[in-house]
Amino acid sequence: MSPSDPERVTLGDCYGHGVLRSENGGATWEERNGGLASQETDRRVRSLVQHPTLPDVLFIGTADSVFKTVDGGRNWTASGVGLPGKAVYRLALDPSDPLHLLAGLDGGENPGNQLQPAES
Questions:
Q1: What digits encode the pLDDT tens for the residues 9-67?
Q2: Which terminus of the chain, N or C, has less C-beta within 10 A?
Q3: 56 found inside a domain
Q4: Cβ-Cβ contacts under 8 Å for 4 (sequence gap 6 or more)
Q5: CB 75 within 8 Å of CB 23
């Protein structure tokens, strides 16, 4: 839910529909996946976080990376520079610096619940 507009709700779908947005409290939904399909990424969203004061800045974690939007999901760009290509199951924004993103990865050197910095 947007901190500035309680009618705006954004969710990530783990079944492959990507990101969905409602501007009317959930009465209707619209896909917001610009840039995801063209990058041939797995659209199953595992985590979504929204900037606390910039409602159009969102981050999603997918099966292979982190993506960022600055326009409410109309256009997404890869933002997982330096991540080892693992599924991103958890995202968190640093409360003292909301553009400092932490990502929890699946297996490997950073199993599930361990967070590591991701470029935002």
A1: 999 988 888 899 999 999 999 999 888 865 555 678 899 999 988 889 999 998 878 89
A2: N
A3: yes
A4: 55
A5: no
Distances (CA, A) of 23 to 7, 8, 37, 106: 5, 4, 23, 33
Structure tokens at 81: 């520079």
Cβ atoms of 38 and 69 within 8 Å: the answer is no
Query: Could you write out the DSSP letters of every residue in the chain?
Result: --SS-TT-EEEEETTTTEEEEESSTTSS-EE--TTTGGGT------EEEE-SS-TT-EEEE-SS-EEEESSTTSS-EE--TT--S--EEEEEEETTEEEEEEEEESSTTS-TT-EEEE--
Residues linked to residue 92 through DSSP beta bridges, in sequence order = 102
Tell me, yes or no, whether 94 lies in a domain: no
User: Range of 70's domain?
Assistant: 9-84
Q: How many CB atoms lie within 10 A of CB 84?
A: 11
- From the list 116, 4, 109, 24, the residue with the least C-alpha distance to 61 is 116
Quote the percentage of the chain above a pLDDT of 90.
32
